[in-house]
# Entry
Amino acid sequence: MRSNVGAFLAFLLLSGLLPCSTLNAEEQTNSLNSTKTLYVSKQGDNSNGKSWESAFHSIQSALSAIPDGSGEFSVVVRPDTYMEANLAPAHKGAAGAYNNLIGDFDGRLGSGATGWVIIDSGDPEKGFKSWDWWSTIRASDKHWPHGNNETTFSSLVWDRWKFQNLYVTGGDAGLFFDLTDQSGQGFTVVIEDCVGIGRAFGAGVVYPTVRPEEPSVFRRSYFLALDWVGDTAAVLLGGREQEMPEAPHAVFEDCTLVHADNAVAISYASDCARAHFKNCRMIVLNFTQPEMGGKSTGILCTQGHKDTGKLHVDLEDCTLAGYSVFTPGPDAKALTYSLSGKVEAYVQFKQPLPEGIERLGQWSPEFFSMMAPPETPDVLKK
# Structure
């Protein structure tokens, strides 16, 4: 099955409606509004964040200092490790005026340091904190039976923010946005040159309604989830439309998705969800042996979907690997797809391939080497 979604995305890019690719360092420096820029560095004096000398020591302090919702604010962070979780800004960005959270990976924004800005949401003494609703991006539900559930909080506060050059890990989810009690509203984030690692999800967005000319965009990034039990995926998606929308909720360009059992999944609570994947690599580690009782949810997972839950994926020039492309059995009926360019899959030898996807018969060392998180931001930018 073929689609005109690629032409649709090209139209958005040419029209300036889809956020453009990363600016080079000089352009990025010049684009920062000096009166709307806050700095984070452990070497600052933690006073007002208005310069590297007065930089805040924590990312949350800078996010809390955003004074209003006019947009075009930037939080620039010196490469280092920041033990922080459940981050939330004081204000959203604005239409046509996104706010920015930027890691100064090459020092050209004045930090004088190079490397990753690592946001570690784990316990500083005990390690990885895999606890429900304990993640890099704040979201919670007081009706949840356990975990970080004292209040209900929506990731909607991150609407129209752009993230660059960040490595987030150590908690239940990485760059994952759950709208909780604000579900059903329009929501957009842009993620570029980032790493997102979590127990349940490396990245994802649930449960907005589509902004046809302003989807969430995940570009040149790596996403890894470390668990295989329950609602878990490298990327989790969820929408609130009762009918499949014509445009995607999210677009993934040149991303690598790695997971023990599936790369992309629809959330159990989702209605219709749609995403476009262009030049992406989906690497699933489960190549089970069903004769011995092994099971897999497939590279593209619709297991456990509710009655109104449907997932549509537009695949363009992608390579997939894992036990099977779809969830085995009746759950696969909840997934539809379109193909453009060359889409290939390396699967367990007895598994059929969906129409139009080319079978790979040989293991690719180069492809599977990409399952490792990138050592530096430069690896993603190449």
Q: What stands out?
A: Helices lie at 5-14, 25-31, 59-64, 365-368, 377-381. The chain has one domain: 5-31+121-381. DSSP finds five helices and 23 strands in the chain.
